[in-house]
User: Which sequence fits this backbone?
């Protein structure tokens, strides 16, 4: 009944194997292959890497007089993708993969995503030229990792290693082009979204000190901040849920109707785009009392249905990285708050602002960072 909406432009960018583009049986087949790699039980394998990324990055950033939270969180979430998805193991490879990924992200001009007319070469100077050059450099590095895995080099838990070893239900292996498509999708779908949510969480916790105090007491009362403890800390989980309720990062999960749909009194023809109103659902006063307030407790007192709470979309295209992102956010936020004291530098209100496909904070949320 529903197909992805207007994804034609992103085929040349992500490759035709990206889950964002596939439809019907091909989409189902792809999800069946990839889902187990993001399943809740798999998370334990990524916990230590995620925590190490958070600690190394905050240590580097804390040497500065002020830190832009969004920059810090973007570096952490990028390194998490490089280590747990791309499988960068030694320091040099991680640095090279991070630099190459940064260049890919920086060269992804919104123009390229909105019109395929911009996909033209011009003596190395066009946005398309910059994008293809950056992508080629990243793929060359990923080739090294793939070769290492295929020659039985290091045995790793990363998603790239699992993709290399996996076969579809019909026994067919995944091609290298297809692996690239999925890795690009994870890079774009997974790192900015997570960084923006973490930035909002830091902002709201420091505007609502009661919540911060309660959260601080929780990891302390658990006695340790191991990834497993943080991932199961109820108030930390509720804080992240409440952050994504107040500020869903993707506000339109668009679908194209494959056949006509009756919606209340309206008959919508096939081909029309529809989307659930995520923000309206998240601010519905009959579901959430005082919806404008940041109050993580509501997620402890009550559990909300998939129609009331949808920061990761819904249905058969629901975010495949939802468990991964929730786990990552709990570890990053819990680890940083346990060991560091953060202070908002700017007292001005921060409000949601459209970036491109995502919505993010209107400022990067500058903070001061001190050891606790
Ligand atoms: C806070 C972080 C994140 C948010 C808010 C988020 C949100 C979303 C949303 C709203 C969708 C669209 C769902 C729909 O159309 O119904 C989506 C899809 C997707 N996300 Fe995420 N995401 C996050 C993190 C991640 C991560 C970490 C990954 C992977 C590493 C990831 C991979 C994907 C993929 C592959 C899809 C496409 C699924 C499909 O079309 O079948 N996301 N995400």
Assistant:
């Amino acid at each position: 009944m529903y197909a992805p909406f207007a994804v034609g432009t992103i085929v040349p960018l992500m490759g035709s194997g990206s889950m964002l583009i596939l439809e019907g049986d091909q989409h189902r087949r792809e999800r069946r292959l990839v889902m187990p790699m993001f399943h809740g039980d798999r998370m334990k394998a990524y916990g230590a890497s995620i925590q190490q990324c958070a600690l190394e990055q905050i240590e580097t950033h804390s040497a500065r007089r002020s830190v832009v939270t969004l920059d810090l969180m973007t570096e952490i979430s990028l390194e998490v993708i490089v280590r747990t998805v791309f499988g960068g193991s030694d320091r040099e490879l991680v640095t090279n993969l991070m630099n190459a990924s940064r260049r890919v992200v920086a060269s992804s001009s919104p123009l390229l995503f909105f019109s395929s007319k911009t996909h033209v070469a011009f003596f190395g100077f066009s946005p398309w030229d910059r994008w293809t050059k950056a992508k080629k450099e990243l793929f060359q590095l990923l080739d090294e990792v793939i070769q290492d895995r295929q020659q039985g080099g290091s045995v790793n838990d990363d998603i790239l290693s699992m993709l290399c070893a996996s076969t579809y239900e019909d026994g067919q292996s995944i091609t290298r082009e297809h692996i690239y498509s999925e890795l690009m999708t994870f890079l774009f779908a997974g790192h900015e979204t997570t960084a923006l949510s973490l930035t909002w969480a830091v902002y709201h916790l420091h505007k609502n000190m009661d919540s911060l105090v309660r959260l601080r007491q929780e990891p302390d009362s658990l006695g340790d901040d191991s990834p497993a403890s943080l991932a199961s800390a109820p108030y930390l989980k509720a804080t992240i849920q409440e952050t994504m309720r107040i500020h869903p990062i993707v506000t339109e999960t668009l679908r194209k109707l494959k056949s006509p749909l009756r919606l209340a009194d309206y008959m919508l023809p096939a081909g029309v785009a529809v989307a659930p109103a995520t923000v309206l659902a998240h601010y519905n006063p009959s579901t959430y009392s005082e919806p404008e307030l940041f109050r993580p407790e509501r997620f402890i007192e009550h559990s909300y249905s998939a129609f009331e709470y949808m920061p990761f979309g819904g249905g058969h295209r629901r975010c495949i990285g939802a468990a991964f992102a929730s786990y990552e956010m709990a570890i990053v936020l819990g680890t940083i708050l346990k060991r560091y004291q953060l202070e908002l530098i700017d007292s001005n209100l921060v409000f949601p602002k459209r970036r491109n496909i995502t919505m993010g904070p209107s400022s990067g949320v500058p903070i001061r960072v001190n050891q606790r």
Notes: The domain at 2-371 is CATH 1.10.630.10 (Cytochrome p450). The pocket of protoporphyrin IX containing FE is lined by residues 19-20, 31, 85, 185-186, 189-190, 193-194, 197, 249-250, 253, 311-315, 317-321, 324-325 (CB under 6 Å). The radius of gyration is 21 Å. The first strand starts at residue 2 and ends at 4.
